[in-house]
Amino acid sequence: LKIQKRCPFCQNENRCGANSATPCWCIGLTIPQALLDLLEEKYVDKACICQECITLFNESPDAFKSQFKIG
Fold this sequence. Notes:
Shape: globular
Structural class: mainly alpha
Strand content: under 5%
Helix content: 25-40%
Order of helices and strands: HHH
């Protein structure tokens, strides 16, 4: 599985470790389904959301949507 190295929302490096020898930072993290539902179809199963975007969404979904002009 080829994973893009950029977050589909902020375009910063997502530091994905899915294909590395050590567990990725996201292994113990729950990514809200509501956030996953915001992904464009072309990114589903192809790009990882970065830790900063996950944190921002968890703190305030409305602020996240506003920042990235979603909805």
